[in-house]
Amino acid sequence: MAKEKILIVEDEEDILELIRYNLAKEGYQIDGVMSGEAALRQIKRNTYNLLVLDLMLPGVDGLDVCKMLKRDPSTAEIPVIILTAKGEEADIVVGLELGADDYITKPFSPRILIARIKAVLRRRQPQEHEHPAVITVRDLQIDVVRYKVSVEGKPIQLTTTEFGILLFLAKRPGWVFTRYQIVDAVKGEEYIVTDRAVDVQIAGLRKKLGPLSDYIETVRGVGYRFKDEPYEQT
Predict the structure, then answer these.
(1) How far apart are CA 205 and CA 197, in angstroms?
(2) CA geometry: angle at 169 spanning 116 and 130, to 5°?
(3) Where are the domains of the chain?
(4) Per-residue pLDDT tens digits for 70-96
(5) Cβ partners under 8 Å of residue 136, min gap 6
(6) Strand-pair category, 216-219 with 80-84
(7) Separation CA 180–CA 193 (nearest Å)
(8) What is the pTM (predicted TM-score) of this model?
C-alpha cells in the first residue's frame, strides 16, 4: 500500500532534494515547491497528508502559509511540521500558536525529521487494536478515533497537539503533570520544547474550550491537570 503524500516547501534546492531523497527512501510520495505561493497552489490541486514547511520563503512566507491553511476549514486538518533556521523561542512559540504540529530547527538530522513525521502521522491514525470510543465529561465530548471534540454539543476545531494534550489530561482527571511530562506523552521524548511553548498550547486550548476552559487547571510551580471529574467512555 502506498504511503502518505507529503509536500515539502523549501526555497534552498539542495535542502529540498535532501529531504525528498530521504523521505522517498521511506516510501512516501513527495512533491516539492520553492515558494509560499507555489505551495498554496499545489495544495488546492492535490491532497496531502502532511506539509514540511520552511519559514523564510520568497514572497508569501511560511508563517503566512501556515496561517492561511489553518484558517481554511478544507485544509486546517493538514499536519504541518515547520523546518527552519529560525530557532529563537519567540519563533517557536509563534509557529505553535498558528497550529503547527512540530517545529524543527536547521541544521537538522534527516533521521530525526523522518521520526517526527512518522510520529505526527501516527497520531492522526486510529490504532488497529482500538475500538471507537468517545470520552464524555459532562458537556465535553472527545471522539478518540475521529479526532473530534464538542463543547455543549457544538464542535470545536483543535490542532493535533491541542487534541493530544486534551486527551492525555482528560483520561487522567486529577493527576498533575509537568510541562515536560505532557510533551513526552503527546510528542515523544525527542521533541524539544520550552515551558513557554507548552503554556501557549494550553492557553489556545482553553480559549477554544470556552465555557469549559476551567476543566484544565494550572497547578502553580508544577504544571497542569484536568479537573477531577469522572468521565464516561463508550
Answers:
(1) 13
(2) 65
(3) 5-123, 134-233
(4) 888 788 889 999 999 987 878 888 888
(5) 142, 231, 232, 233, 234
(6) unpaired
(7) 8
(8) 0.60
| DSSP-derived secondary structure letter, 174 | T
The Cα–Cα gap between 209 and 207 comes to 6
Question: How many Å apart are CA 85 and CA 227, to the nearest integer?
Answer: 39
Q: Is 104 in contact with 83 (CB distance < 8 Å)?
A: yes
Q: Is the peptide bond before 73 cis (omega within 30 degrees of 0)?
A: no
Buried b (16+ CB within 10 A) or exposed e, 62-74: bbebbbbbbeeee
Domain 5-123 top-level CATH class: alpha beta
Q: Which DSSP helix (H) or strand (E) runs through 94?
A: helix 89-97
CATH second-level architecture of 134-233?
Orthogonal Bundle (1.10)
Give the DSSP letter of residue 59: S
Query: pLDDT (tens digit, 9 = 90+) per residue, 109-127?
Result: 999 999 989 988 887 665 4
CA atoms lying within 13 Å on the CB side of residue 208: 20
For 150-230, where are the alpha helices, taking DSSP H only? 160-170, 179-186, 195-209
